[in-house]
Design goal:
Elements: E1 7-11, H1 17-31, E2 35-40, E3 45-52, E4 55-58, E5 67-69, E6 74-79, E7 82-86, H2 96-123
Parallel strand pairs: 1-2
Antiparallel strand pairs: 2-3, 3-4, 5-6, 6-7
Amino acid sequence: MRFDIDYSLARRNFGKRGCDRLFLPSVNVVFRTPDYFWFDSYTQEFAGFHLVDGEYQPLQANEQGYLWSHQLGLYLGVYEGLLRFFTRDGQLVPTPEETAEQVQQKAEQAEQKAERLAAKLRELNIDPDTI
C-alpha cells in the first residue's frame, strides 16, 4: 500500500521528545512524506527534514532562521513564538483570522469614506440617495 502525503508537521508534546524523534520520522518514511517538520512550542525548538533516497536530510535555515518546504513552496519559521509560513521573499503569510481582520478593516474604512462623501454631498444640497 502506498500513501502520498506532501508534508508533515508535528507539534510535539513535551515529555515525548525522544519518542517523537524516533517514531515520527520512521512513520513519515513509510508514508513517503517529502517534507517533515517539528516544532516544540515550549522550547521553541524547530527542525525540518527533506526525504532523499529514503532517508531524511536536515534542512538548512536561511538568514532569518526559516526552513524551506519544497512541497509547499513556502518557508516555515517561528514568529512571535508561533510557527508561521513565509513567502519566498520572507513576507509573513497571514493566518485566515488575520486575513478576515484585514478584510473587516478595509470594509470599515470604505464605509467611513462613503459616509464622509455622503456628508459632503449633503453640504452641497445633493441627496446622495438619489445619485
